[in-house]
Amino acid sequence: MSGTSCEVAWFSALCDDDYEFLGEPDPRLLSSFEHCRNIVLTAEQGGFDNVLLPSGYGLGIDTLAFAAGMAPLTRRIKLLAAIRCGEMWPPQQARQIATLDQMLGGRLAINIISSDMPGEVMDSAPRYRRTLEFMTILRDLLDGKSIDFAGEFYRLKLAPPRVRMVRGNCPALYFGGLSEAARETAAQQADVFLMWPDRMETVRAIVADLKARAARHGRQLRFGYRVHVIVRETEAEARAAAQRLLSRLDDDEGRQIRQRSLDARSLGVAKQMELRETADDEGYAEEFLWTGIGRARSGCGAAIVGNPDQVLGKLRAYQEAGIEAFILSGYPHATECDLFARHVLPHMAHAQLP
User: Fold this and answer.
1) CA distances from 106 to 51, 99, 150 (A)
2) Homologous superfamily, domain 7-228+324-347
3) Predicted TM-score (pTM) of this structure
4) Residue 123 predicted with pLDDT over 70
5) Fewest CB within a 10 Å sphere: which of 60, 114, 159, 327?
């Protein structure tokens, strides 16, 4: 398994999600161009293939504006920019993405998020129907195709924008979601299906289900896994670092942090809560998978905790389950990025996904 290649990405905290102690705001770690820039540059220097730039509204800074600012500052690393479907009219979004890809020399991928818009509450089923239409239009335009589209949410007849993607086609679309509607959307239009932390048997089941769904549409999916990491030279040190991270957390503050997200009511968030509630007394859902982070975070709520060999072994087990891309993070992000880059990344065969 040691020779099996995978994509290894880090996370830049554009959405005010960086702490030394979870739940305790630190002005030094609030999202700013400088702080998030430093995380990306640390990831590039450390040898990561990609970096996720998340998207929020009430928190942090704008994703695509930040990505454009990073274009002249990076040389090798790919940027995985998150966009929320509906925030922008699809043809203009296509032109914006193609322009950004030109600035990055082809080093762009897109994380599609289906969520309520700021000030909007929309039922899950129509929201995913809108997302599927958006993804279909976006892919065709970025592939350089003219479109004649008549859907429930969009009606468009136009040529693609003149500016084109560097490689001539739509970049990889990363997408996640566990509801029936989300899985069907992924099966029809995603390139990489992203999942949040879960027990190994559940990961295998999700991979099998999405492979079958994609096959019914004549497609193939790759699979990504979004998880935090806490790696130290010994397991005892890693566990102590995990406990230190929670040592100043007030439960009420943690609850407020979880509820701030636009996605706080999603099935995926509910599953993260269920994972946390069924963990052991120390917060471990299974060996090396610690759910304590979910006490102060909506969404991805667990970390792989251990020494370098244990963390590496856990990642390789996920690869054997079908995972081809990892999006990792830790607190504080720049510090944990450097630790992972030194202790684990050199032992992984990795490269950007196409």
Assistant:
1) 14, 10, 31
2) Luciferase-like domain (3.20.20.30)
3) 0.93
4) yes
5) 159
The pLDDT tens digits for 300-318 are 889 999 999 999 999 999 9
| 3-class SS string, the chain | CCCCCEEEEEECCCCCCCCCCCCCCCHHHCCCHHHHHHHHHHHHHHCCCEEEECCCCCCCCCHHHHHHHHHHHCCCCEEEEEEECCCCCHHHHHHHHHHHHHHHCCCEEEEEECCCCCCCCCCHHHHHHHHHHHHHHHHHHHCCCCEEEECCCCEEEECCCCCCCCCCCCCCEEEECCCHHHHHHHHHHCCEEEECCCCHHHHHHHHHHHHHHHHHCCCCCEEEEEEEEEECCCHHHHHHHHHHHCCCCCHHHHHHHHHCCCCCCCHHHHHHHHHHHCCCCCCEEECCEECHHHHHCCCCCCEEEECHHHHHHHHHHHHHCCCCEEEEECCCHHHHHHHHHHHCHHHCCECCCC
In which residue are the tokens 């004649």 written? 148
| Location of structure tokens 């003149």 | 162
Q: What is the pLDDT of residues 33-57, one digit of tens each?
A: 999 999 999 999 999 999 999 998 7
